[in-house]
Automatic annotation (TrEMBL):
The lineage of its organism: Eukaryota, Metazoa, Chordata, Craniata, Vertebrata. Gene3D superfamilies: Phosphatidic acid phosphatase type 2/haloperoxidase. It comes from the Eukaryota. Keywords: Membrane, Transmembrane, Transmembrane helix. InterPro entries: PAP2/HPO, PAP2/HPO_sf. This is Sphingosine-1-phosphate phosphatase 1. The chain crosses the membrane at residues 12-33, 40-62, 139-160, 167-188, 200-219, 231-251, 271-293, 327-345. The keyword Transmembrane applies. One of its GO terms (cellular component) is endoplasmic reticulum membrane. It comes from Callorhinchus milii (Ghost shark). CDD domains: PAP2_SPPase1 (cd03388). Residues 71-185 form the Phosphatidic acid phosphatase type 2/haloperoxidase domain. The keyword Transmembrane helix applies. One of its GO terms (biological process) is sphingosine metabolic process. GO terms for molecular function: sphingosine-1-phosphate phosphatase activity.
């Protein structure tokens, strides 16, 4: 079943070195795209669970749509991805073997397969967005539910097409994500209010996320999931700390209850230009932050822990380097996304 479904949509290796699927054909061990529409559609679907999507979608939502919803969405995303990655390293079930599966994407091949964290994020993000905006924004809720369902289905099918998961991996990921949503949704008010108002919230947030990162690094040997986990935890900690600072300074105040529900504004040329300027400036700040911190933290960690830095790729496989590099870098990126960038918008009259 894994061989046919996990790779059959994208292409199954045939006995004579050639085989075909709905999306492509294998010739001499090389996957050749036969249906470009399916290939690009599922490539887009798999990108909805990758770093490029997160580093653009979350900031865009925070800067241009609704920071209140964005903060809570990121809390859910952090817990879903953290629990998913840790569960992978505990269960340790391998990805579908190749052959018979054709692996169109191989970047995450070093990770375990169950549960599919792409399926988890592809379920949690759209449906959390739907539940968080119902009653807060005026829009056709049937359309919102349909969009969330299509988003989820696209991401899940893309993992089968790419040959990275079996059907069971994807189903477990969906159900696991639903369970986490059921458990955490009632606690969002408590968590968000704690992050905003508790005096020592930043200290608690940083300590908790760091401890979670250290625990996850002890579960198994190196894989890309360790760095991703530290990256997600750092981003979540940075966003939560920025929320606290914003609350103290009155930056990005929440919409008062009497002004709800919110109506989408009319799309004008002026609004589009302002959105584009905000997004362009904000992403530039985040990219500079990421580049500077990456250049500083890796050599610094190597020096502190006396690890050779001649081969950066090998050095990053050590917990003493990977954890502080990812945690500090993406923690600062998250903090700047919700504090420094909106502060610049206010200063430049782009709010």
């Amino acid at each position: 079943v894994v061989g046919v479904v996990g790779g059959g949509v994208g292409g199954v290796v045939g006995g004579g070195g050639g085989g075909g699927g709905v999306g492509g054909v294998v010739v001499g061990g090389v996957f050749i795209v036969r249906n470009k529409l399916l290939y690009y559609l599922f490539s887009f679907g798999t990108e909805l669970g990758n770093e490029l999507f997160y580093i653009t979608f979350f900031p865009f939502w925070l800067w241009n749509i609704d920071p209140y919803v964005g903060r809570r969405l990121i809390v859910i995303w952090v817990w879903v991805m953290y629990l998913g990655q840790c569960t992978k390293d505990i269960i340790r079930l391998p990805r579908p073997s190749s052959p018979p599966v054709v692996k169109v994407e191989v970047f995450y091949d070093s990770e375990y397969g169950m549960p599919s964290t792409h399926a988890m994020s592809g379920t949690a993000i759209p449906f959390a967005l739907f539940f968080l905006t119902v009653g807060r924004w005026e829009y056709p809720y049937a359309f919102g539910l349909l969009l969330a369902s299509c988003w989820c289905i696209l991401v899940c099918l893309s993992r089968l097409y790419m040959g990275m998961h079996s059907i069971l991996d994807v189903i477990v990921g969906i159900l696991y994500s639903v369970l986490i949503l059921i458990v955490f949704r009632p606690t969002l008010d408590l968590i968000d209010n704690f992050n905003l108002t508790y005096q020592y919230a930043p200290l608690f947030i940083i300590s908790l996320h760091l401890a979670m990162g250290i625990f996850s690094f002890t579960l198994d040997t190196w894989s890309t999931s360790r760095g991703d986990t530290a990256q997600i935890l750092g981003t979540g900690a940075g966003i939560a700390c920025a929320s606290h600072v914003n609350h103290l300074l009155g930056i990005l105040p929440d919409t008062p209850l009497h002004a709800l529900p919110l109506s989408p504004p009319a799309i004008t040329l002026t609004l589009a230009a302002k959105v584009f300027m905000r997004f362009g400036l904000g992403v530039a700040v985040l990219l500079v932050t990421r580049a500077v911190l990456k250049a500083v933290t890796i050599p610094l960690a190597c020096k502190i822990f006396r690890i050779s830095c001649t081969d950066t790729r090998q050095a990053r496989k050590r917990m003493e380097v990977e954890l502080p590099y990812r945690y500090i870098t993406y923690g600062t990126v998250g903090f700047n996304a919700l504090f420094l960038v909106p502060f610049l918008f206010k200063y430049l009259n782009l709010s």
